[in-house]
Design a protein that fits this description.
The structure is a homodimer of 228-residue chains.
Chain A: H1 6-15, H2 22-30, E1 32-36, E2 50-56, E3 58-64, E4 70-77, E5 81-84, E6 91-96, E7 100-106, H3 107-115, H4 118-144, H5 147-161, E8 170-173, H6 178-185, H7 189-201, E9 205-208, E10 212-215, H8 218-224
Antiparallel strand pairs in A: 1-7, 2-5, 2-7, 3-4, 3-6, 8-10, 9-10
Helix pairs in contact in A: 2-3, 5-8, 6-7
Chain A binds a DNA duplex (30 and 30 nucleotides) through residues 146-147, 177-179, 187-194, 196-197, 209-210.
Chain lengths: 228, 228
DNA sequence: CGCTTAATTGAGAGCCTTCAATCATCGTGG
DNA sequence: CCACGATGATTGAAGGCTCTCAATTAAGCG
């Protein structure tokens, strides 16, 4: 059960619910606040579906397949709501890309408490739809696009979801490593690196350090992303 | 606006809502019933998000990428609720695999009407979660599994969702073509066909005609599906 | 400033795709 | 009921894109 003001902010900003209200107190009782250091895996109960609010930071949701293979199923940023499924065909784990603050709820109880309060369920439903649509777009990339298109697509989607470092230009400070990008795009580190290189050679992006990427020509990137 | 009893069944079985109630009548006003012949694409308004109830039959949701590439994002069977997104990065279309009966709602209005009635939103949220989890499992397959694992995985997931033709044995009557399977698994028709052949040679499945598949050894299939 | 880890770059192999031909299935019409 | 035609499925050979393995370079932290 969380005690800090993080939950209060969550309840107010996402649902418009007063922390002191009946639902507010019920949800507080369900909640579990976790501060997660960069690179650490959240210690979660994987026997049930979980709903996680990412108050701050960035995370990746990783699905594990046989043979140590990993597929990153989604990235998350501050304010996102994450659905962590109970272990089924693939086990999953939630890992911090930066120091992060999580609030964890058991989904079933969360939905049950929220059922009386439409203000709860509606935003959750909208978020779930968004997550579903993102996952489908990812599936299209994984199933039908080549490495070039996947990387271009990835950069554009990150540009949509992250703040640009500079005012005038699109400069991203990617919190994830090349391995993370590869695991998200269904590629290898080497292939991702080669694609970055070719995009750089083509003048479409500039890279600085390990995490900095400048999108010089977003239109050209969009053109090669393979979107319909 | 639909007039038949199909909507009534939907409201009662899925939400426990009486068709004659206030919400029931509101939802009826929003609804649009479509009978779709096998192979036909549903004539939908792709400028907004849609929520579709598949009363009977089977459908595929196809996402289109540049160059005529298609990725089947999900299959659906009678009783399923389908979320059809407004055209964004990828246009999508809903196609009948068998003669099907659909009830179409604009998502926003549907959710708005349902917001007053928690019995509506909760099942929708659960369905959305299920769809999300399925899509993630698909993403793992598309990103990290070889052809063999994808086909084995596909057969098992179909076995979970469809009725077996025979009592004792797992015999499926697949409504989708090899092309559909390929478009769902991110492979080509030829590769899918070769995998079926090898599975047959290995004694794991038996095929009869174009659509009949008998799963002789589900355990062995599960073992080669690459699930964690 | 040095060390550890991540990223880049190169060469060769593998899995799936592409292209092409043959075969089977199933709906249709005689 | 069977022959026929059209579409779908199977099978084969060659090529391509990404992976794997290996070495080098760069980045970032102590």
């Amino acid at each position: 059960m969380a005690a800090s003001g993080t939950l209060d902010i969550f309840l107010r900003s996402t649902f418009g619910v007063e922390p002191g209200s009946h639902v507010g107190r019920e949800l507080r009782d369900l909640s579990n606040e976790i501060a997660l250091k960069k690179g650490k895996t959240a210690p979660l109960d994987h026997s049930i579906n979980l709903t996680v609010y990412l108050a701050s930071g960035a995370t990746k949701l990783v699905a594990h397949a046989k043979g140590g293979r990993e597929q990153i199923v989604a990235f998350h940023f501050g304010g996102d709501i994450i659905s962590v499924p109970a272990d089924a065909m693939h086990a999953s784990s939630l890992v911090a890309l930066k120091d992060s603050l999580l609030i964890v709820f058991p989904s079933r109880e969360f939905y049950d408490r929220g059922a009386s309060e439409p203000a709860i369920l509606r935003p959750l439903l909208d978020r779930a739809q968004t997550a579903l649509h993102r996952c489908r777009d990812k599936a299209v990339g994984l199933g039908r696009k080549n490495a070039r298109e996947r990387v271009a697509s990835f950069l554009l989607s990150m540009a949509e979801r992250m703040e640009s470092v500079e005012e005038e230009a699109l400069v991203l400070d990617l919190p994830m490593s090349r391995r993370d990008i590869a695991d998200s795009l269904g590629l290898t580190i080497e292939t991702v690196s080669r694609q970055f290189g070719e995009l750089r050679d083509a003048g479409l992006v500039l890279t600085g350090g390990r995490s900095r990427v400048r999108l010089c020509d977003p239109a050209a990137l969009a053109d090669m992303a393979g979107h319909f």
